Amino acid sequence: MSGARRWTTIEHDRAGAVFLGLIAALAIAAPVLNQLVPASSPFHLSTYSLTLIGKYLCYAMLALAVDLIWGYAGILSLGHAAFFALGGYAMGMYLMRQVGARGVYGDPVLPDFMVFLNWQTLPWFWVGFTHFGYALFMTAAVPAALAFVFGWLAFRSRVTGVYFSIITQALSYALLLAFFRNDMGFGGNNGFTDFKDILGFDLHADGTRVALLVITAAALAASYLACRAIVDSRVGRIIRAIRDAESRARFLGYRVESYKLWVFVFSAVLAGIAGALYVPQVGIINPSEFAPINSIEAVIWVAVGGRGTLFGAAMGAVLVNYAKTYFTGALPELWLYALGALFVLVTLFLPRGLAGLGRAADARFRLAPPHPLSGRSDRTSACRSGAN
Known about the structure:
The protein is mostly helical. 71% of the residues lie in helices and 2% in strands. It is built from 15 helices and 4 strands.
């Protein structure tokens, strides 16, 4: 292994260690500040802030999924919000089944929106969602199945570049229109809301929200480690080779379509799990989550944080969404303009994102010449030791 490559690996491990340390610190500090610090204290973490942090962590998982395929495989997807939303809907179906007779209409089987729309029986695809294990499986299986079918058709036809981006955006928009329909059985434009509990625990209790945040932090850390293991493996090197020279990789005998399909499906699974963790914390899921603008925002998170870094993409998701929370309250009419300007400025002046800026500063620090006084002191010490 060359010296440059060895240093790059160490640098990535160091940045990853810092990132994982921040996640661990957050998972420890947030419960303490919410549960043990009195509400009258300025250090108390409110339930609202707890929910926001959980939402940011879910977005960070989505950013990891996007960065894995865009930063390392060169596949720019503008439809990853669809996989995020499908995972959220799968978890939402489980949460709706847990409401039971406690709903507005008191029906022990049908969710409230089905009673309102005069549904007589539960649709077949809702069967099984009374069980948490089945719902958890579907949060990964449904996005994986869609990504497999879509990716197999696209990669087999050698659809790449901007054309792939356009059809993924079209896929997301088609699902948006489909889930808006009341006869689809997914709540129409209102979606799912008014959840009561998960695994018997009250979703509105602070303790449950703390547990969900800790689980989300653990899932984010596990997702990062999984993605890091992939990109540092032999498969990761092949994926990067396909990104840089797809025709040459195909000429050397690699099944390019298979590698691209595999990483695309894995990325979709990560996005689906992120959506499943998002819904119980936010308390609602509706077709607006399929909107193409959500997928475009995810790409902006990755670009701002640093494409091809993983930890930069996750940090970019947190920073941009924190800015969104602030500016949509302070200057709601200017937020979209600010987001667009941010993307343009990062593309022009920070092509490697904030992570690249940090690396450049670190490189300049390492290459800085020694201070004259320190050099003179070293020479003086050497002379004294020689005299002795």
